[in-house]
Design brief:
Length: 453
């Protein structure tokens, strides 16, 4: 191909179940990508797999694939790339094959990319000298090894391209870097060398722009308003040329917006140093691309420059780190902000009196600027706030203490300030905490695996 159209219909597990179908129907795509994974998602999937060896993947994908079946029949060349495999890509691939067969589609090969799951190898890797030091603190993983529930390397795009070369129409991966869902098809279609850093950077920019779905087409846009049409927001696609230049747009007639603001806002999403954005394929320099408005809801990108990839994979590790719970109440009336803050202190003081303290506790007043502390002026000075939401959260290694905490919200309805309400949904849920441990591992210690179901 001289150009390829790649659209992303899912930005996370929990995104709109209808968006992938609408994008496939209206986008005239060559490839549909579906991005399901986040760091927390991996630890949740790890626990699901512990309970059931056939689980551990994003089950929403199987439902979406069934809904996509009519379009897959109409468009036999449409390919689907997804990281829905999570902690169990093989099981997800088999489930995908069964879903296609149920829909009467038996001529599409399903490829599976695995090898990212390092948990079964973790002790051997540590014994071999891989310390998995925490990227922020430098602490070795041995400090929390007994509590680790998942450890996954962020694989690159080469295994996806290999699965496509083997004839896969559906490619299911475990943990890969998000932009690789876009770069893999480019490697396959254009034959980009694995050391063509500039084109790999361009593919990374394109993949990063569409990986979060509607965030690039008006979702979370700073200037979105009622006229933006987010009710019918279109999900993004990119038209990438063999030289790496591309445009980003959305299906005609859909809501949202594609302009310099929506695109650049997404470009800087989850980026620390824009000049050195590390991926398994390339160190991308996000300061080099030039963006221009090429038409209504069309932005063109040229000039992306990259640097050689590192010799390491990032590893996302999750470990058990206690228990947490959070609950809310509505505090109305005069001086609502002050009363809410005092109500939170009342709860924690009563719990201390009962013998329960917590490693971490937090009282915030929603409506008083606490969502973005320090950005808004102190809302306590505003006398006409008629009501606020009190949110109190705790975290501790003692599960019993956290469970006791959940019983202190309802008493404020009769023993707190007048009008206190919002307690009828029941007690807050106690949840296990999975803390995040980022680390690196040498690429030569990880072996990606590609197979057809």
């Amino acid at each position: 191909m001289n150009a390829v159209r790649i659209g992303n219909g899912c930005g996370f597990w929990g995104d709109s179940p209808d968006a992938p179908v609408r994008l496939a129907e209206a986008g005239n795509l060559d490839y549909l990508t579906l991005e399901y994974l986040a760091e927390l998602t991996m630890s949740i999937l790890a626990l699901l797999r512990q309970r059931d060896a056939t689980a551990g993947y994003a089950t929403d994908f199987i439902d979406v694939l069934g809904k996509l079946a009519p379009q897959l029949k109409k468009q036999p060349t449409l390919k689907v790339i997804t990281n829905a495999g999570g902690m169990n890509p093989t099981a997800c691939g088999k489930a995908a094959k069964e879903a296609l067969a149920k829909a009467g589609i038996t001529d599409r090969a399903v490829g599976v990319v695995s090898g990212d799951d390092l948990l079964p190898l973790l002790d051997d890797l540590i014994a071999a000298g891989h310390t998995f030091n925490h990227l922020d603190t430098g602490e070795p993983l041995s400090a929390v090894r007994s509590r680790v529930v998942s450890a996954n390397a962020y694989l690159g795009s080469a295994p996806i391209a290999e699965a496509l070369k083997l004839g896969a129409s559906i490619v299911v991966t475990g943990r890969v870097a998000d932009a690789c869902l876009t770069i893999g098809p480019c490697l396959h279609e254009f034959g980009w060398p694995h050391d063509d850093w500039h084109r790999l950077c361009a593919g990374t920019v394109a993949g990063h722009l569409i990986e979060c779905g509607a965030q690039a087409t008006g979702g979370l846009w700073v200037n979105a308003d009622e006229t933006t049409g987010l009710e019918t927001v279109g999900y993004p696609f990119v038209d990438i040329a063999a030289d790496g230049t591309f445009t980003i747009s959305k299906p005609p007639g859909t809501g949202g917006a594609v302009n310099l603001e929506t695109v650049v806002e997404q470009l800087l999403y989850e980026v620390a140093d824009p000049a050195r954005y590390f991926t398994p394929d390339v160190v991308a320099d996000f300061t080099t691309p030039t963006f221009t408005q090429a038409g209504p809801d069309v932005v063109k990108c040229v000039g992306a420059k990259g640097h050689p990839a590192s010799d390491s994979y990032k590893v996302s590790i999750a470990y058990r780190d206690g228990w947490t719970a959070a609950g809310t109440l509505v505090i109305p009336g005069p001086n609502a902000v002050a009363k809410a803050r005092h109500s939170g202190r009342i709860m924690l003081d009563r719990l201390k009196e009962a013998g329960h303290t917590f490693a971490h506790s937090y009282v915030e007043v929603l409506g008083a600027g606490d969502c973005v502390p320090g950005v808004n002026s102190p809302a306590e000075r505003v006398s006409d706030i008629p009501e606020v939401v009190l949110r109190v959260a705790v975290r501790d290694a003692n599960k019993a203490a956290v469970e006791r905490f959940t019983k202190e919200f309802a008493p404020l309805v009769t023993s707190g300030y007048p009008g206190t309400t919002g307690y009828t949904t029941g007690r807050a849920a106690v949840r296990e905490v999975f803390a995040y441990w980022p680390a690196l591992i040498a690429k030569n210690a990880v072996t990606p695996k590609v197979e057809l179901v």
